Amino acid sequence: MRLMQLTAFGVKLLGRRLLSPVLYGIVLYFFVFGGRARRSIGQYQQRLADWSGQSALRPTRRRVFGQFMAFADALLDKLDVWNGRLKIEDIDIIDPALLRNQLRAERGQMLVGAHLGNLEVCRALAELGEKVTMNVLVHTKHAEQFNRLLGEAGASHLRLIQVSELNPAVMLQLNQRLENGEWLAIAGDRVPLQGGRQVRVDFLGQPAAFPQGPWLLAGLLKCPVNLMFCLKREGRYRVILEPFAEAVVWRRSDRDQVIAHWAGRYAERLGHYCLQAPQQWFNFYPFWKTDDDASA
Length: 296
Prior knowledge:
about 20% strand; single chain; two-stranded antiparallel ribbon; 9 strands
């Protein structure tokens, strides 16, 4: 907690210009010494190039390094969000289905995002736009500490909720928040490090593990699911809202098949948006795990 507070204080005190060289230096260190992360990004770039048929996307040292630097830039943008420097006017909201009109509905919905671009920008909708409470579901054990930091930064409509396990108490809490008109946001492209239910579906032409959590939750909570992606294009963020599922309905007998269907459809849309911002997908570990990766 002290280190997080020190980081937040450093940003307020030094500002982005002075902090940028420090952060870029840290990311450069991990690029030089993080062989596993470099290989993982190279594998992703190769998969994307093969799947899309665009040879220009094939990995080179320069392109892999560019993805590390894009991550550093995204971290600085997160800090700008925390400190209120990002305004709703600085964001282009792409919402052809007018999903924003539903943010003030009596019952909330679920937004499924990804580690693509900058999910922190969802605060722009929660804090600056519709003034609706957004509950971000995370696997970290430090959710309460982050909530304290968010509160100190003035974020009154954004809350992190730890969902390491879907026990009755957690389900009751989430259902009550939906009934209060609050929204739930969760990333659909990362399996918890400590394990958890997962399903293998095609992603960029190869089978990969995706979490079952979002689709299990949607079925249990009986709430609509929309997709949200935040991509940076030409220096501006584009928040893309896309309708996905009016309802995810499964029974115990067909649960695995239904969840595999929705996870597969999600992976298709994720690939589509990865192609729009090819260096902004930030998963620095072997996403397409093989037996060799597991034993390494």
